[in-house]
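Provenance and format

Records in this collection were gathered into a single text stream. Each protein contributes a sequence line and a token line. The two records reproduced below are adjacent in the stream.
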Amino acid sequence: MITFQNPVFSAYAIAASLMVLKVVAMSWLTVWQMMRVKGGYRSPEDLRKTPLNPKPNKSQLLPDERVDRVRRIQQNDLENVPFFLVAGFLYVLTAPPLWLAQVLFYGYAISRFAHFAAYYTAQTHDMRATLWTVGSLIIVFMSVMVVWAALV
């Protein structure tokens, strides 16, 4: 059941891997943003003179909205994606129909990428909340189905 010959597991593996790559990519995006703006650093040792920071300045420790926005997106991912990884894996064990599993797994991934785009481009809270809600409801649905399958 937990092999790549199982198309439901394969769909989960694809969506889960995309989510892991997205969360990891946010760290890289944070670093890129900090280098681009030469600021948004958090630690005093970041003001040491290095080849990447040849002219340190105390202002580099001040908050920078562009860097902080990416950090907030990553924090949101860290608060949500792990639940998808667990719920999705357990959902595979319920042997759901392939079409439904694909809708849920890929729907979650799409909702998270759309949430990223909305947050990164400073869309309204209502837009972000709607996209977050889609992903959250997918996790809730899968979790309820897991509980149901385990009880029956």
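Adjacent record:
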Amino acid sequence: MREMRTVIQRVQRASVTVNGSTVSSIGQGLLLLLGVEAADTEEDVQWLSRKVLCLRIFDDEEGVMNRNITDVGGDITVVSQFTLMASYKKGNRPSWIRAAGHEHAVPIYESFVAALREGLGKPVGTGIFGAEMQVELVNDGPVTICMDTKNKE
């Protein structure tokens, strides 16, 4: 089973801090939390990055969600989050056995960020993979969408 997952949050601003230092900060745009599974491939990266870049969740001049991230000149920050791969079927303590290990997850994460950077035409912010991070955001709307490469809904 393949299932790369992301939580997409439309934000007015967002930042990522590690050990008291800000490592990423954006204004209007998208904050993405990304979970990678061991079976995820470059095909998943390409599908998910295209969907994120084309997702029309920003208002046009009539207040209708009709614009994508590039239309509004917005920014993107991507934060790795293995806990998105939680299995909670048995008991009350989540299992993260489906989450990819560093040796697979880091290249997939980096490829996803690179695909977004290429499509956006400007740098994409990141957290630090595997670090303890503090993520702050002002959710705009709020607009929050969960997306994965398995269901493709």
